[in-house]
Design a protein that fits this description.
Elements (H helix, E strand, L loop, with lengths): L2 H34 L9 E6 L7 E4 H5 L3 H6 L2 E4 L7 E3 L5 E4 L5 H5 L5 E10 L2 E11 L7 E2 L3 E7 L7 E3 L3 E2 L8 E6 L5 E7 L5 E7 L10 E10 L6 E11 L7 E2 L3 E7 L7 E4 L2 E2 L9 E6 L3 H6 E3 L5 E4 L10 E10 L4 E11 L7 E7 L3 E2 L7 E8 L9 E5 L5 E5 L4 E6 L10 E10 L6 E11 L12 E7 L7 E4 L14 E5 L12 E3 L5 E4 L10 E9 L7 E11 L7 E4 L10 E4 L8 E4 L1 E3 L10 E7 L5 E3 L5 E4 L10 E9 L7 E10 L3 H10 L9 H31 L3 H8 L13 H10 L4 E4 L4 E4 L6 E6 L9 E6 L8 H11 L7
Parallel strand pairs: 1-7, 9-16, 18-25, 27-33, 34-40, 42-49
Antiparallel strand pairs: 2-5, 3-6, 4-5, 6-7, 8-11, 10-14, 12-15, 13-14, 15-16, 17-20, 19-23, 21-24, 22-23, 24-25, 26-28, 28-31, 29-32, 30-31, 32-33, 35-38, 36-39, 37-38, 39-40, 41-44, 43-47, 45-48, 46-47, 48-49, 50-51, 52-53
Length: 835
């Protein structure tokens, strides 16, 4: 046998083994595919046929039309072909909807000896999710020549072999099927042998050579015959092999097996070198002709690597690794041969027992991520395909996912599962999910595998900005610089990206004057409020405004918060003295105190106010400077000037008191006022005292003396006029009797009962007169500042009662409230009125 013929025989054996494996595995694949076609076929099955070996791009069928879709819908609904295998034999044109060949198909490589070669493809429509199945039948063409594994076969036949003895000839292999497969054998013409073609149980034909005429080694020792195998194609194709018959001498008994068929079962995980079966053959000859050797015949290359037979013992052992998923059973042919060349054949059928050695396989067919958080419950998130190569319980798969996830698995069609949402999704609660899908088979022990999916949720603008507080109160010190940062409001938005980008603004109320924009402004990005003017607490103490936070979503969402701005007082106002009022010409007011006043006598009261508030407006009064220290005291908080002791003869007639009024601010501010107190029982006494203190007038001061006398005279006239005027008024108020009794005691009333100097001022200022008294050695002024009111201090019989001021309004022609005045006279039991 030539090397070329041996190579062809090895190739034929290899092809035969491949076809046998494809036949066994394709049966299971086609069974699953046929079940899958029930998914969407209904009454109409999508089925095409195409010859093998077609070029890439060859037309198979109009899939869009058969699915009832327009070509434009293929891309819109994301129609595509899904396949679990690595080879993609078909492709779908999304524009025309035609199904075409994507890779040249070899039917023999794909289906082996299966008569009807069907490929099932799965068509996935993603919107909405729908699954279809289509069958494509691969038609066989006569592209293979029948071939023998060996180009030369040697048969040793004893010359005593009886006619009618049959000899097995080598089988030819033709990968084609149907009429294109092997159909007949023929033997070249000869005198001794004939050929009989038989059919095996599987429909495969084989040839047996029959000895028709006894052989005579002495006539011819070797017979060379040509065996031809022919297929049924059009045109027919054939292959040949040479049969060399070597005639042996005198061994007329062939070995005989004790069984015609040996059967056994073997686990697929059996260790190498383990025996699986032992055969036995007997030969009736004696001597060397009875010695039998065993061998495996007609093995493919793959089978020859799996099994080995001991030629002496007939024991068959495992040399490789069995795989139930690749081959479920093996049919081996064994030969027993004696030394004379006689042989006989038998068969060994080994059934491989499945072991749970394959974990389930999870294939993610489609994953719809990212997904909108507003997707309703029941939305398909992923489409999964689960497959286990094992069989029986070992191939039954259950799927599960982690607990506490808002998802569930539902079975779809065939081995397909859908992962769907079970609850409403919220990106603000959880923005992404790592979902682990676990598949476990039913074997013992069970095997499992897992597949992780990442689901990302797309944000929707479903959350408005929110402020941590319902309202804010902030404080700002008055006299702030323009542009001062007042306060920062901060809102949060649990959304993402532009949906969480917040801008701030101040809301204006319709018709608000002046507008808030003239007071404050806000940074739209940071929410910081700035003052646009300097605030004065004394004019403006509180500002109510509303800040709006708006996100960048579509449509935008917003929320409001109330902000109250309180202006904080600053000690920026000094105390203002209301009484005694400060004249504009620099003169000092005069207060009258009777010389007979005792300790604690109320001389006057300094009244001051402070425009500030709080402790900045708390005022305290102190005596800063006095003509006679220790003679007067000032109430710390009341401002009342009282005598600290009785007057002495040595005390000066004119007492000047400097009163300081100070607030409680930081730093404190103050104001001062000078109060002049004239110590005398009456105005004439004041004038007399001032005259007695004067010295002889020298020629240079004579003019001053004349002026003083003139002023005193004029003052007396005015004083008399005031007394007459008061008498007339009192008569009109029906108090004539009281006035007559009072006029009788004008000279004897005590000095403590007097009309205050303010009353004198009011009458004198009505006529706009001033009296100035001047001496040579001491100069003093008795000032009557302009005023529209007259204060009359009325005496009370109760020594502890305070003076009751009665206001006489000169602007109303000195018409007093008659009832008020009468009541005052009666309640006070007035006896005298002194000026």
């Amino acid at each position: 046998m030539s090397s070329k013929e041996k190579s062809r025989e090895r190739s034929s054996r290899k092809a035969t083994g491949i076809r046998q494996r494809i036949w066994n595995s394709s049966g299971r694949v086609l069974f699953c595919l046929l079940l899958g076609t029930l998914w969407e076929t209904g009454d109409g099955q999508i089925r095409y046929s195409v010859p093998e070996e077609k070029e890439k791009g060859s037309f198979v069928g109009d899939l869009a039309k058969d699915l009832g879709l327009e070509p434009r819908e293929l891309s819109e609904r994301r129609v595509r072909i899904v396949s679990r295998g690595k080879a993609q034999y078909f492709s779908l044109n999304s524009e025309s909807g035609h199904l075409s060949i994507n890779e040249k198909i070899d039917r023999e490589e794909l289906c082996g000896q299966i008569t009807q070669c069907l490929l099932t493809i799965e068509i996935l429509v993603e919107s909405p999710v729908k699954l279809f199945a289509a069958e494509i039948e691969i038609l066989d063409i006569n592209d293979n020549i029948p071939s023998f594994q060996e180009q030369d076969t040697v048969l040793e036949i004893s010359e005593v072999t009886a006619p009618g003895t049959r000899f097995f000839l080598p089988d030819a292999r033709d990968p084609d099927v149907g009429r294109n497969s092997l159909q007949s054998y023929s033997l070249s013409n000869n005198q001794h042998f004939s050929l009989e073609v038989k059919t095996k149980a599987g429909g495969k034909k084989y040839a047996e050579m029959i000895l028709e005429k006894p052989l005579d080694r002495e006539v011819k020792a070797v017979h060379t015959l040509t065996l031809t195998a022919t297929d049924g194609g059009d045109p027919a194709r054939s292959g040949t092999t040479l049969i060399h018959v070597k005639v042996l001498d005198a061994n007329d008994n062939a070995p005989i097996f004790d069984r015609t068929l040996y059967q056994g079962k073997v686990r697929e995980d059996i260790p190498r070198g383990s025996p699986v079966v032992r055969v036995k053959a007997m030969d009736k000859d004696e001597g060397s002709n009875s010695l039998v050797t065993y061998s495996l015949v007609k093995l493919s290359d793959k089978d020859s690597d799996l099994f080995v037979m001991d030629p002496q013992t007939g024991e068959i052992k495992i040399e490789g690794n069995l795989d139930f998923e690749a081959m479920e059973s093996y049919e081996l042919e064994i030969q027993a041969k004696d030394n004379g060349g006689l042989s006989t054949l038998s068969k060994v059928l080994l059934e491989v027992v499945d072991v749970n050695d394959n974990a389930p396989e999870i294939t993610v067919t489609s994953l719809f991520s990212p997904l909108s958080e507003e997707s309703p419950p029941g939305t398909v998130i992923a489409l999964l395909n689960v497959h286990d190569r094992d069989s029986g319980d070992n191939g039954k798969v259950t799927l599960s996912i982690q607990e506490n996830l808002p998802f569930r698995l539902t079975k779809s069609l065939g081995n397909y599962y859908s992962l769907v949402s079970e609850d409403v999704l919220d990106r603000e609660v959880k923005c992404c999910y790592n979902i682990t899908i676990r598949a476990q088979d039913g074997g013992l022990p069970p095997l499992s595998s897992s597949q992780s999916l990442e689901l990302i949720l797309l944000d929707e603008n479903d959350n408005p900005p929110f402020f941590p507080q319902k309202s804010y109160v902030t404080y700002l010190m008055e006299n702030n610089p323009v542009g001062t940062s007042i306060f920062a409001v901060k809102a949060a938005d649990p959304d993402w990206k532009e949906n969480a980008q917040i801008t701030y603004s101040v809301s204006e109320r319709p018709g608000q004057e002046p507008p808030l924009s003239s007071y404050v402004s806000i940074n739209s990005e940071t929410g910081v409020l700035y003052a646009l003017r300097s605030f004065d607490y004394e004019q403006f103490r509180e500002l109510q405004l509303q800040v709006t936070a708006r996100d960048g979503g579509t449509p935008a969402l917003s929320s409001n918060v109330s902000v109250t701005l309180l202006v904080v007082d600053k000690n920026d106002n000094a105390p203002e003295i209301l009484y005694p009022s400060l004249p504009t010409d620099g003169s000092t007011g005069v207060e009258l105190a009777p010389r007979s006043a005792e300790r604690g006598f109320l001389v006057t009261k300094v009244v001051a106010v402070d425009a500030d508030s709080g402790q900045n407006a708390w005022l305290s009064y102190r005596l800063l400077k006095a003509t006679e220290p220790g003679l007067f005291s000032v109430g710390l908080h009341t401002g009342e000037i009282r005598t600290a002791r009785g007057f002495l003869d040595k005390d000066a007639l004119k007492q000047s008191l400097v009163i300081v009024v100070k607030d409680n601010g930081e730093p404190p501010l103050s104001a001062t006022v000078t109060v002049t107190v004239a110590v005398a029982d009456s105005i004439p006494e004041i004038l007399a005292d001032l005259g007695s203190l004067s010295t002889p007038v020298n020629p240079e001061s004579s003019l001053t003396l004349y002026l003083v006398v003139a002023v005193v005279a004029v003052s007396c006239l005015f004083l008399a006029f005031i007394i007459v005027l008061l008498a007339l008024r009192l008569r009109r108020w029906r108090a004539a009797r009281l006035l007559e009794s009072s006029s009788g005691y004008l000279g004897g009333v005590p000095a403590s009962h007097f009309v205050g100097i303010d009353g004198v001022r009011a009458f004198l200022q009505t006529y706009s007169h001033e009296v100035s008294l001047t001496t040579d050695s001491r100069k003093s002024q008795l000032l009557f500042p302009k005023s529209s009111h007259t204060s009359v201090i009325l005496d009370s019989p109760c020594p502890e009662s305070k003076e009751v001021p009665v206001i006489l309004d000169a602007s109303k022609n000195n018409e007093l409230d008659e009832s008020l005045f009468q009541n005052t006279l009666v309640d006070s039991s007035l006896r005298n009125l002194h000026l």
